[in-house]
């Protein structure tokens, strides 16, 4: 069986890390694409030269031509600009929307059968626009944010309780922004919901609230520390988990920005919800029951995403 092909549109901080992780996991051959000539070629050569030391087999090519992504099984999109300190994800809307138009055209022409994972911010609006610009089916275009946000939540919980991250399962719903909804009731340590862990006195309510807020601000905390650019190791690892689930038909249940056509009472936009990712792409949206305050927080998050989509339509009327 021929190796799978993974195309990475954008070869910056996340793109380079994605290429390295995909190679280490031997997910397939890799094409790094970027408009800045030399960067994808340089990173491809560097990662290829790490192969003998690491012992992986993968062909890695750097390119500035869309035709090289032809036939890709998975396309992961990070093209665009990241945040600088003081900027919100939404400040990137106008510039990254133009980038999505070019990327969508490239995917439509050369990789129309691929599974597309968008990472470019503001995530929920960009994945919506990328699906429109590419014309690929909704189940084949998803956004990566929930795995990352949940991973951050997990890390903070595991660190606070002094337990292995392997035993922590955390859930974050909604848009990837300040309105995201970390769900304590559906987040567990070895199956015990965090709400029960608070009742048991293992974690205080104040500490849990602090962790929830730190999760919401997780991206900004790293932007503030790095000063140039935003997080890239954890975002790349999160997208690779999604790509692997698709390529190996693992049917993992992962939170991701998925197209909602009525579930959760939402129609026509991408929002972070749990989905099953398998060979069919986004195979099923899992609709979990929300209580009053969770529903309110989710609705608030959906409203923020809808606002961004309206802003996209104003900038690019053909999306309307
Ligand atoms: P960066 O290192 O700047 O890489 C972006 C790359 O995109 C650069 O190499 C650019 O040359 C390239 N690029 C720009 N325009 C185009 C174009 N038209 N076609 C192809 N390539 C282009 O950024 P990064 O890798 O750190 O981040 C990439 C994106 O991911 C940004 O929008 C971030 O805000 C976003 N991001 C999202 C998350 C989520 O959880 C959703 C987390 C972290 C970063």
What's the helix-strand series? EHEHEEHEHEHEEEHHHHEEEH
Structural class of the secondary elements? alpha/beta
Q: How many beta-strand runs?
A: 12
Termini Cα gap: 42 Å
Average pLDDT, all residues: 96
The largest sheet has its strands arranged as 3-2-1-4-5-6
List bound small molecules.
Answer: 3-acetylpyridine adenine dinucleotide
Query: Roughly what fraction of the amino acids lie in strands?
Result: 15-25%
Multimeric organization? single chain
| Cα radius of gyration in angstroms | 19 Å
Short structural summary:
The protein is of the alpha/beta class and 320 residues long.
Write the layout of secondary structure elements.
Elements: E1 5-9, H1 13-24, E2 29-33, H2 39-54, E3 60-63, E4 74-77, H3 93-110, E5 115-118, H4 123-134, E6 141-143, H5 146-161, E7 168-173, E8 181-189, E9 192-193, H6 194-199, H7 205-216, H8 218-226, H9 233-247, E10 252-261, E11 267-278, E12 281-285, H10 292-315
Parallel strand pairs: 1-2, 1-4, 2-3, 4-5, 5-6
Antiparallel strand pairs: 7-8, 8-9, 10-11, 11-12
The structure holds 3-acetylpyridine adenine dinucleotide (A3D).
3-acetylpyridine adenine dinucleotide binds at residues 9-15, 34-36, 39, 78-83, 92, 96, 99, 102-103, 119-121, 123, 144-145, 148, 176, 229-232, 235.
Structural overview:
This protein is of the alpha/beta class. It has helices at residues 13-24, 39-54, 93-110, 123-134, 146-161, 194-199, 205-216, 218-226, 233-247, 292-315; strands at residues 5-9, 29-33, 60-63, 74-77, 115-118, 141-143, 168-173, 181-189, 192-193, 252-261, 267-278, 281-285. Helix 5 (146-161) runs antiparallel to helix 7 (205-216) and helix 5 crosses helix 9 (233-247). The site of 3-acetylpyridine adenine dinucleotide (A3D) has 35 residues, from helix 1 and helix 3. 3-acetylpyridine adenine dinucleotide (A3D) is lined by residues 9-15, 34-36, 39, 78-83, 92, 96, 99, 102-103, 119-121, 123, 144-145, 148, 176, 229-232, 235.
């Amino acid at each position: 069986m021929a190796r799978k092909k993974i195309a990475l549109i954008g070869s910056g901080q996340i793109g380079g890390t994605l290429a390295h992780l995909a190679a280490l996991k031997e997910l397939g051959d890799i094409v790094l694409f970027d408009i800045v000539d030399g960067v994808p070629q340089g990173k491809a050569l560097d990662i290829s030269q790490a192969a003998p030391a690491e012992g992986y087999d993968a062909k890695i090519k750097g390119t500035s031509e869309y035709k090289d992504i032809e036939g890709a099984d998975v396309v992961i999109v990070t093209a665009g600009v990241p945040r600088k300190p003081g900027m919100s994800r939404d400040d990137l809307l106008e510039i990254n929307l133009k980038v999505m138009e070019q990327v969508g055209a490239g995917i439509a022409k050369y990789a129309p059968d691929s599974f597309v994972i968008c990472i470019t911010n503001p995530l929920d609006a960009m994945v919506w626009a990328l699906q429109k610009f590419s014309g690929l089916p909704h189940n084949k275009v998803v956004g990566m944010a929930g795995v990352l946000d949940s991973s951050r939540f997990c890390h903070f919980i595991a660190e606070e309780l002094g337990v292995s991250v392997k035993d922590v399962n955390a859930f974050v719903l909604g848009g990837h922004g300040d309105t995201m909804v970390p769900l304590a009731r559906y987040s567990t340590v070895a199956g015990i919901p965090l709400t029960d862990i608070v009742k048991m006195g293992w974690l205080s309510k104040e500490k849990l609230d602090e962790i929830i807020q730190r999760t919401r601000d997780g991206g900004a905390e790293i932007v503030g520390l790095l000063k140039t650019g935003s997080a890239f190791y954890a975002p790349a690892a999160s997208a690779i988990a999604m790509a692997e689930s698709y390529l190996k038909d693992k049917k993992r249940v992962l939170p991701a920005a998925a197209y909602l056509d009525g579930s959760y009472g939402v129609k026509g936009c991408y929002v972070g919800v749990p989905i099953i990712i398998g060979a069919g792409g986004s195979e099923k949206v899992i609709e979990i029951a929300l209580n009053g305050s969770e529903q309110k927080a989710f609705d608030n998050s959906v409203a923020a995403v809808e606002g961004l989509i309206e802003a996209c339509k104003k900038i690019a009327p053909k999306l309307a």
